[in-house]
Amino acid sequence: MPAARRFPLQLIGAFFALYVIWGSTYLAIRIGIESWPPLMMAGVRFLIAGSLMYGFMRWRGAPAPTAVQWRSAAMIGFLLLACGNGGVTLAEHSGVASGVAALAVATVPLFTLLFGYFWGARNTRLEWAGIALGLVGIGMLNLGSNLQASPMGAAMVIFAAAAWAFGSVWSRHLPLPVGAMASAAEMLAAGAMLLAASLLSGERMTEMPTAAGWGALLYLVFFGSIIAFSAYMYLLKNVRPAAATSYAYVNPAVAVMLGIAFAGESIGFEECLAMAVIISAVVLIGLPQWRKQKPA
């Protein structure tokens, strides 16, 4: 079989989007919050992205979500996007480095296995070892100077990872719209919630965003929310789940390098050691999935 057919360009592009684009969104958030209030920026991001996706899907002939599907999408959007992504945005606004935020979010697979256990999933010994090692890595990460300097940011980013994982597991048991329409509905609901939270918390624009602030918002809308998510959905259908979720141990490295190169961030020895431990834990969790054979 020719190499192009074994590893088509679509697959290469999808992995590039997942590894590089999702990894770079942490730096884009860091740049954006210098001009935008954090909750307002996250709300505008998802409201625009959700509107564009919803309009496109309806134009393609996808049916509008039912009332029950809207309610389910709102609950999952609250957990994944309002709490998950909104929490990361608030953590970076409180001083957490973008690379450290990405490293904390890499613990999502650990929380996913833990929450899955309460829904009847049974983990292997290797997966439990990965969970234990990952929890050690979280403890080491919180000993680093970056998160110690911002206890609220540390709590926020760990909460964001747990909320994303809980929403991911719960979404399998809820009646959501089919395909990309689910993402559109979740983004619309989360965008409205984040803007409401922004208003209630008293966030106000004191001056117009800079060109960099507008650029960061547009990057997050089109690349972070639409292109990268579409790539993730494509990979879920065409590769093993462990390969599709491998962004969890690639994004931190990308975010750290970009943060050091473009934002003047620095990562201490404790954070580097925690990165090695957490990434090793995620790899351990992924090994049983890689070993599973595709059904005949």
TrEMBL record:
<protein>
    <submittedName>
        <fullName>Drug/metabolite exporter YedA</fullName>
    </submittedName>
</protein>
<feature type="transmembrane region" description="Helical">
    <location>
        <begin position="273"/>
        <end position="290"/>
    </location>
</feature>
<comment type="similarity">
    <text>Belongs to the EamA transporter family.</text>
</comment>
<feature type="transmembrane region" description="Helical">
    <location>
        <begin position="39"/>
        <end position="56"/>
    </location>
</feature>
<dbReference type="InterPro" id="IPR000620">
    <property type="entry name" value="EamA_dom"/>
</dbReference>
<keyword id="KW-0472">Membrane</keyword>
<keyword id="KW-1133">Transmembrane helix</keyword>
<feature type="transmembrane region" description="Helical">
    <location>
        <begin position="12"/>
        <end position="33"/>
    </location>
</feature>
<feature type="transmembrane region" description="Helical">
    <location>
        <begin position="96"/>
        <end position="119"/>
    </location>
</feature>
<keyword id="KW-0812">Transmembrane</keyword>
<dbReference type="Pfam" id="PF00892">
    <property type="entry name" value="EamA"/>
</dbReference>
<feature type="transmembrane region" description="Helical">
    <location>
        <begin position="247"/>
        <end position="267"/>
    </location>
</feature>
<feature type="transmembrane region" description="Helical">
    <location>
        <begin position="178"/>
        <end position="200"/>
    </location>
</feature>
<feature type="transmembrane region" description="Helical">
    <location>
        <begin position="126"/>
        <end position="143"/>
    </location>
</feature>
<dbReference type="InterPro" id="IPR037185">
    <property type="entry name" value="EmrE-like"/>
</dbReference>
<dbReference type="InterPro" id="IPR050638">
    <property type="entry name" value="AA-Vitamin_Transporters"/>
</dbReference>
<feature type="domain" description="EamA">
    <location>
        <begin position="15"/>
        <end position="142"/>
    </location>
</feature>
<feature type="transmembrane region" description="Helical">
    <location>
        <begin position="212"/>
        <end position="235"/>
    </location>
</feature>
<feature type="domain" description="EamA">
    <location>
        <begin position="152"/>
        <end position="286"/>
    </location>
</feature>
<feature type="transmembrane region" description="Helical">
    <location>
        <begin position="149"/>
        <end position="166"/>
    </location>
</feature>
<feature type="transmembrane region" description="Helical">
    <location>
        <begin position="68"/>
        <end position="90"/>
    </location>
</feature>
